[in-house]
Design brief:
Elements (H helix, E strand, L loop, with lengths): L1 H15 L6 H43 L5 H62 L8 H4 L9
Helix pairs in contact: 1-2, 2-3
Length: 153
């Protein structure tokens, strides 16, 4: 039953974001990775393995769907969100709650991480683009004050 619910959740999440890009893809990747990692981790190591598997799967899924320049942030957000969601979901309603929590946490964490990475890139390149259009003083005054060693004796 757990595998059937994980498969249905995976199909429903991936079909909803087929036409979206960037942040939505990172969210869907984090949700799918968190659920699948949680299922495999629970099979191998119980509830602790489920939390570790959800974290690793959420990070990997978020990276797969994130933009090129914000993969690190998406991986951190997806991994932490999926692992935390799994732990909280298991406390609330057992292993099926852990799957739902891993999906929601991985989706939220991957989307927030990707969005944060995009904002950080915009701030980083904004000053560089403005400096590129500045060519100095409009007159020739700045050429007169250069020191040329080859003319000194």
């Amino acid at each position: 039953m757990k595998y059937l619910s994980a498969a249905l959740l995976s199909v429903s999440l991936s079909s909803g974001a087929a036409f979206a890009g960037g942040t939505t893809e990172a969210a869907v990747g984090g949700a799918l990775g968190g659920v699948l990692g949680s299922v495999v981790g629970e099979h191998l190591g119980g509830s602790t393995g489920a939390a570790i598997g959800a974290g690793v799967g959420g990070a990997a899924g978020s990276v797969a769907g994130a933009d090129k320049r914000s993969r690190t942030e998406a991986a951190i957000g997806g991994g932490l969100g999926a692992a935390g969601g799994n732990v909280v979901g298991q406390r609330v309603s057992g292993s099926s709650g852990g799957l739902i929590g891993a999906a929601l946490g991985g989706a939220a964490g991957g989307a927030l991480g990707n969005s944060y990475g995009d904002d950080d890139d915009d701030r980083r390149y904004r000053g560089r683009d403005q400096d590129r259009h500045y060519h100095g003083h409009p007159g020739k005054g700045h050429y007169k004050h250069k020191w040329h060693k080859k003319y000194r004796h």
